[in-house]
From TrEMBL:
Gene3D superfamilies: HIT-like
Domain spans labelled HIT: 34-103
PROSITE patterns, alphabetized: HIT_2 (PS51084)
Name of this chain's protein: HIT domain-containing protein
Length: 141
């Protein structure tokens, strides 16, 4: 049975569900940083997914990246699946801007996280509602 890693649960806010992945917002307003987590128990690596789920993960990742790039005015999109701290397979999709807190360096460990306000989260969710494809289901706000 799928269960979200406690570290992801503590550090993120739920956004919704693609057919394969749960979509989370990293609770760090320094960057617009979303995380896709395939809802499959016991998976830590992409190669552990069957070919269909690998394809679906890549489709959901690239769809999200393009929507964020276009809808939030990214200068660069960062996509990564590291898993060195959180073993559960998850993919980071981060909107990078030349004026963000860490540019041009990686975001990890650069600055302390600054949690979003309720109003900031509401604005992000509202914008995502305009952008997301029909197969995406939003979590309850």
């Amino acid at each position: 049975m799928f269960a979200l890693d406690p570290r992801l649960q503590n550090d993120t806010l739920p956004i919704g569900e693609f057919p394969l992945c749960r979509l989370l917002l990293s609770n760090d307003s320094n960057y617009l940083w979303l995380i896709l987590v395939p809802r499959i128990a016991g998976i830590s690596e992409v190669f552990q997914l069957d070919a269909g789920d690998q394809s679906r993960l890549w489709h959901e990742t690239t769809t999200l990246a393009q929507l964020l790039n276009d809808g939030f005015g990214a200068d660069k999109m960062n996509i990564g699946a590291l898993g060195n701290v959180v073993n559960q397979l998850h993919v980071h999709v981060i909107v990078r801007k030349r004026d963000d807190a860490a540019w041009p360096a990686p975001v990890w460990g650069r600055h302390p996280a600054v949690p979003y306000s309720d109003d900031q989260v509401a604005l992000i969710r509202a914008r995502l509602r305009e952008l997301m494809p029909p197969e995406f289901t939003f979590a309850q706000d």
